[in-house]
Amino acid sequence: MKRFVAIAAALGLGLAGGLAAGAAKAAEKLKAAWVYVGPVGDFGYSYQHDLGRKAVEKALGDKVQTTYVENVQEGPDAERAIERLARDGNKIIFTTSFGFMDPTIKVAKKYPNIYFEHATGFKREKNVATFSARFYEGRYVIGQIAGKMSKTNTVGYIVSFPIPEVVSGINAFMLGAQSVNPNIKVKIVWVNSWYDPGKEADAAKVLVSQGADILVQHTDSTAPLQVAQEKGILGFGQSSDMAKFAPKAQITAITDDWDPYYISRVKAVLDGTWKSTDTWDGMKEGMVVLPPIQNVPADVKALAEGTMAKITAGTLKPFAGPIFKQDGSQVIPAGKELDDPAILSMNWYVKGIDDKLPQ
Amino acid sequence: MLEATILTIITAATPLLLAAIGELVTERSGVLNLGVEGMMVMGAVAGFGVALMTGSALLGVVAAALAGMALALLFAVLTQTLVTNQVATGLALTLFGIGLSGLAGERFVGQPGVRLQKLDIPGLTDLPYVGKILFGQDILVYFSVVLVLVVGHVLFRTRIGLVLRAVGDNHGSAHALGYRVIAVRYGAILFGGAASGLGGGYLSLAYTPQWVENMTAGRGWIALALVVFASWLPWRAMVGAYLFATVTILGFAAQGMGLGIPAQFLSSLPYLVTILALVIISKNRLVMRANTPACLGQSFVPDR
Lengths: 359, 304
Prior knowledge:
The complex is a heterodimer. By secondary structure, chain A is α/β, with parallel strands linked by helices. Chain A is 42% helix and 19% strand. Chain A is built from 11 helices and 14 strands. Chain B contains 13 helices and no strands. The longest helix of chain B is centred in the N-terminal third of the chain and has 27 residues, at 2-28. Chain B starts with a helix and ends in a 13-residue tail after the last helix. The relative contact order of chain B is 0.20. Classes of the chains: A alpha/beta, B mainly alpha. Chains A and B meet through β7 and α7 of A and α1, α11 and α12 of B. Chain A: It comes from Prosthecodimorpha hirschii. Chain A: Pfam families: Bmp (PF02608). Chain A: Residues 1-26 form the signal peptide. Chain A: Keywords: Signal.
């Protein structure tokens, strides 16, 4: 009898222990982490991702604990940073730059129980999802505005690296500009950095001295727009609304709103419904947002807003045929449009661009 | 177009030149401070912050120099008084500076800054072609050129310069002769910090008047390399800084004109050309040996 009591007690204890552990687990916060290529204070791309992280904290409150690592170099450093976050017990890790693609996949294979989300890439695994925004939709719109607004018919375009996201942006811009102004020229300068305010400003000044009267950037700092403001010309912001830096120069900006996506993905982990998916949302879903258009005449504003409405409704596709490459060969005939894989792997320029694409 | 290009080159060269001249003096005293990037970025955030709060870009410039000096003082206490390893301490100083500036500058992000005014002398600044280049710069550009002349003069034509170089070349002998090695090095480190801070302040007050984290983007390292390739001679550092800026800007210009030269090649060109040019002008081994501070990076502990 005594023995039976002892066993029952032991069982009871064990059971209670198990229950206690369960309770502790429920109260434990889900850890989510973000990896940024630039500083959160860049007021551009990484800043915008960090707004998304803060939105997750706000929406899910006690249930999550978020961290981030900023200024992570694309390459071996990224692998180390991601792996450390994995070892620190994060359940979901967002890696937010194209160059983090291979490091993310590598670490994901080592940690099959952790979910990874890679931005702007194309490699997926069972535990790696990808997400991106259709930035090019916004670039088509600003292309139209630039085509209407340029007096010198010359646009200066400052870019970072020749990856598909950037190249499709240039092409969409050019197609938009050509749709309203067949004589438009685009001068392209690669600064080989996502983020170097000094270099971006230098490139901007050089382009202005070569006759550009509209500046477009696919780099992350506000420097080119500041140059536009100083020189009395127009430009477009990137990633964030940069109107404060260039109130007279910024027409609009291509901003990314990651908040809804991040909240839904972290929620999915909490609910146990996370799956590897491939998300590519645009204006329709509210992932690409253009702040109110200013510094242009009413008719140009109306044109741009009309185009945005058509893109949102799905009746206008920026990459609808006919599209020709620089050498004149046809990529897609009239009546058809480029499919997503073709846009995601774009490594050619459309006809009319004067630059040689770095390979 | 030529005028605009030259103006852009001057802006690009000035922060490199300021930081390089400061580090050159530090290294001439035998101290290797790898914290240039950290001191620059602290100068950038302090300059921006003070200018924003007081509305005066000039006060910002002063603050930038003081911030660089403050970080340099930390380096001096660690390496000279506490005799820590200079390489490790310098690297740590850079990391510390980048981190601290990010923290201090958090509330400055996204705020338009105060721009350092350019000189405007009626009559002179409006001169065709040369007016804006010679008479239309901000004070830091003129200061950087004057600094090269003054440092060159002091190093090679004055007693202070002689003592500084003696300390850098043979601290044992300098000490035996009764010179206060540690005090001289403190001075040289602080000077280097102030100049690096100014270089950073130039970025956040004149180059791109804004504060964003890490905005120096590696310029401190380029300045460090310039000092070595300039074989520790001020005028060569100036040649190096301007050459680097010129090739960078011409690379952008070539891209804008659509010359079809690969962009990656153009962006590596400033490094190649600068190294090549400075190696060629430094090929005289005697000059090189005479100008390399023999005690560079070595700690000094007076034995009595």
